[in-house]
Amino acid sequence: MIHIRRAPDVKMAYQTMQDGFQDYLIPLHLSEAEFQERILERDGNQLEHSFVAYHGDKPVGLWLNGWKEIDGQRVMRCGGLGISPQYRRMGIAKALYQAQLSYAKEIGMDLLMLEVIQGNDPAIRLYESLDYKISGEIGYFHITENRQEPTPPVIEEAEFLKQYDVQGEYIWQQDPHVMQRLQTNYYQIEESVVAVAESALLSIVGPAEQKAKHATEVVRHLPGTTYHYQSTNRVVWEALCSEGWTQRELKQYIMRQNL
Predict the structure, then answer these.
(1) What is the Cα–Cα distance from 203 to 205, expressed in whole angstroms?
(2) In whole angstroms, what separates CA 46 from the centre of its chain?
(3) Diameter of the chain by CA atoms?
(4) Tell me: the pLDDT tens digits for 146-166?
(5) Angle between helices 92-106 and 121-129 (to 10 degrees)
(6) Cβ distance 132 to 114 under 8 Å?
C-alpha cells in the first residue's frame, strides 16, 4: 500500500533522492551536506512543501518543491522527482503529483513549473499527461577567454535589481533569491548590467541584441578563464555561438501549468 506524506526531514529527503536518482541522466554524486546547501538552500527547494511516497515504512519516491513569487504570481516549482527503480510504473509519480497539486491549490499557488532535460522522453510524457505544457527552453554555454582587461564599473545590487525587474528573462536557479545567497558581483557593460558569481554569469539585463556581445565583454574583464551562461532566448544562443561560446548538448524544457 502506497501512502504520501508531506514535509520530510533532510536525511529522509536526501536518501530518497539518492535512491530515486541513482540511474539519472546526469549523476548527482552529492553528499548530504551538499544536498542541503545546493539542492535545498541554493536552488530554493523547501522540504515543508515537498512530498515523499512510502510503501509501508519504506520511502520509495520524492517530489521536491519550492515556491517563490514571480511577477506577482505565486509559483511552485518541482525541483526533483525521483522514484526507486523497482517501484516505477506503479502510479507513484502521479500520486505524488496529485498530493502536491491539492496542496498547491490549498495554499494559493497560481502556477506550477519545472524543468526537464530534453531527451528524457518518459519524464516529458509523464509531465504532459499531468497537464504541464512546454513554455520555453534553457540552453547552456561556456567560453574560455585568456584576455585580462581592466575590471568594468561595479554597481550596487539595488541598481541591478531595479533593472532586472523589467528584463523579461527568468531562470529559477539564477534569480535574485539565488544571487543573494551567493557572493554575487554586479557590473555595468555599456547599456547592460551583469550579475556574476564565481564562474557563472547569472543574468545579463539589457538589449537582447547586445547580450552575447556583453557576455563576452564582461568575461574579458574578470579573473579566471572559463565562464558559464544560461539563456532562454534562441536568438541569443546563435549570437553567443558567433561570439565564440560553446553550447553544451544538454538543453532543458521549461514546463508550466496554470492553476
Answers:
(1) 6
(2) 14
(3) 64
(4) 777 788 899 999 999 999 976
(5) 50
(6) yes
